[in-house]
Amino acid sequence: METIRLYLHSMRMLIRSQMQYPASFFMQTLAQLVMEGGEMMAVILLVDRFERLNRWEAGDLFFFFGLMSVTFYLTECFGRGITGNFPHLIRTGQLDTFLIRPRGTLTQVLCSAVDPRRITCIAVGIAALVMGCNMSHVLWTVPKVFLMAEAIACGFFLLLGLFTIEGIFCIYAVKSVELVNALTYGGRSACEYPVDTYPRPLRALFTVLVPFALTMQQPGSVILDKPLFDWPAWTAFVSPLSGVALFGLIWLWFRKTMQYYRSAGS
Amino acid sequence: MSYIHVKDLEKRFIVREKRKKGAFFREKKMINALQDVSFDIEHGELLGYIGPNGAGKSTTVKILSGILTPDGGEVTVGGLVPWKERKEHVRRIGVVFGQRTQLWWDVPVRDSYDLLKDIYRIPGEEYTARLKELTEALQLDELLRTPLRQLSLGQRMRAELCGSLLHRPELLFLDEPTIGLDAVSKLALRDFLKWENSRYGTTILLTTHDMEDIVALCSRVMVLGHGRKLFDGTLHDLLGRYDTVRTVTVRYEEADAWPELPDNAPAVCDGENLVITYSPAEYPTAEMIARLQGAGTIRELTVQPRNIDRLVADMYREMDL
Predict the structure, then answer these.
(1) Number of domains into which chain A is organized
(2) A157 in a domain, yes or no?
(3) Residues of chain A neighbouring B105 (CB-CB closer than 8 A)
(4) Chain A residues closer than 8 Å to B67 by CB
(5) Is this prediction's pTM over 0.90?
(6) Is A108 among the domain residues?
(7) B48 pairs with which residues across the strands?
(8) pLDDT tens digits for B189-211?
(9) pLDDT tens digits, residue range B61-93?
(10) Which of the two residues, B257 and B124, has the higher pLDDT score?
């Protein structure tokens, strides 16, 4: 509870400090809209040309795109501390500042940044979701609302975990490793579409190794009443937890790695 | 057991060298940042930690403050092992890095303090009282509403110091706190540190390159070089060994006065002044003055020891640093 209060307090302050440069803020927010609008355009063109992708219809595709966008940009917005300058914190030794305060490292890193510019991207995602739900005639029930929330929350943690890997590499190499971007940004782009449209190796990668399919698409497909891989519907309640579990493992790995932290500078 | 106990502290860094031509892997080199460093510090001590760049000063401070994990040796601060019981430990310490800000850049200083209050869970009344006391002592009143980025370096250092003392730490680490400050700011900062130390018995460990800091503040000095502790004692004892040269500047009423001096005390004319360098060990100062008086009527006379920075430079050279 107290940690949440600290988080909210930090957010208030960070947003106020970003508003010190209002022109820059609004320009960048607008730029985000153009960028994410472009991504959505790609889906619209695809649907326009092919109408369906395997067994997925236009509405389903918008739904999956929206689900990924909302989750990804919520992570970028509220998890900015990790998705944004985490490697930078480690490389420059700024992490020291957090280590000399009596709070958890994760708490403080999350409290260190927020990115409200992503609001436009989240809005695009929500628009796609609403559009998709309408076109696919989704009938909302309480379990489905729960599934939706679970998918987004677990996806949030999965993404945080993946971004943390970059930080871990930074501790060893003191330099950011672009390879990890293939999993984070690459994963986002790939998993805007249902994984069963991909060949087997890619499907395995995004289901088993980096479980975007399990955390977001499995519950998503159950909401659409077209279960992915034809698994029973109840699995959709359990499978998203894989994202949280992976996050937990990666964070333990991070804690273990911290003893090699070298604290650059000064 | 003493408040801070350090025994056989060791820290190694692995440095990857540039890849040699034809080699597939880069060669790794082990650098001993700290070796067999041991010392004890009691409550309320004001201790200076000096040594050339790269001697391991900051590394020691980072280990003592729980940021780095050492590769060997034991460290306890108030009974806690810093890197193992980090959260418990850092609640009781304050750290100021001269070259790294810990406050938030774009918000008024006061807002940063309010957030620190939440981070350290300082009770409301205690916070208000402490903030009032510190803003008075550090003359921060008018700065509290200013964003940090608009402060001058001296103002910022005062603001940082206040931020690191809000939770009343019993131990304060200062890593080059006077770096880049002007004379007035330096003096004010030193006065404040003395006040904090005597008022609350705060133990202060200071790393610096500014010998004046040490002269003004520290009763005890430690010298570190190549990761080893080379000296631990009073500044007086340390400098006594290297303080071997004196300079006398003398000015006579008569234009042509010229004292008779021994060979090992060369004299040089500098305008109307006569500048003589000599070693008090070979030639007692009293005898030197008597000779100078014998040569004519003295209008002005000063005797100076060597610049303290030079002494330290000599010392580093002799210790082969």
Answers:
(1) 1
(2) yes
(3) 17
(4) 96, 99-100, 261, 263
(5) no
(6) yes
(7) B206, B221
(8) 899 999 999 999 999 999 988 88
(9) 999 998 888 988 999 998 999 988 888 999 999
(10) B124
